[in-house]
Write a structure and sequence with these properties.
The chain contains 5 helices and no strands. It is an all-alpha fold and 109 residues long.
Length: 109
């Protein structure tokens, strides 16, 4: 909310990049595949909270609060943008699944 970013994109990216933070470089707390630029090393965070805060701020500021995986894909995952949009499709799919779960969890009015 602080940055005006759709929280689902942060969660969905972790789904694609690390199976929701289950597979990631040891000791990095980096479940988003976040690197220090093209060809850079994996960003290391001191905790999951630090990673979430860092990634959310950078996504919101660096991508102008864009919540569309197809628009951010060419910068976030250039090889995927050039080869069929697999990354954007997967992120979009997880965002859709999150929406479905939220709808199911609403109490009847």
């Amino acid at each position: 909310d602080k940055y005006g970013l759709d929280w689902r994109i942060v969660v969905a990216i972790s789904g694609v990049e690390s199976r929701f933070c289950r597979i990631y470089p040891a000791g990095t707390y980096n479940g988003w595949g976040w690197k220090g630029g093209p060809g850079g090393a994996w960003q290391e965070f001191g905790s999951w909270e630090n990673g979430i805060k860092h990634l959310t701020a950078r996504l919101a500021l660096g991508y102008n609060r864009l919540n569309d995986p197809y628009i951010i894909e060419p910068v976030y995952c250039p090889p995927c943008a050039a080869s069929g949009h697999n990354w954007a499709r997967a992120v979009s799919g997880f965002m859709w699944q999150l929406d479905q779960q939220l709808e199911k969890s609403k109490l009847p009015q």
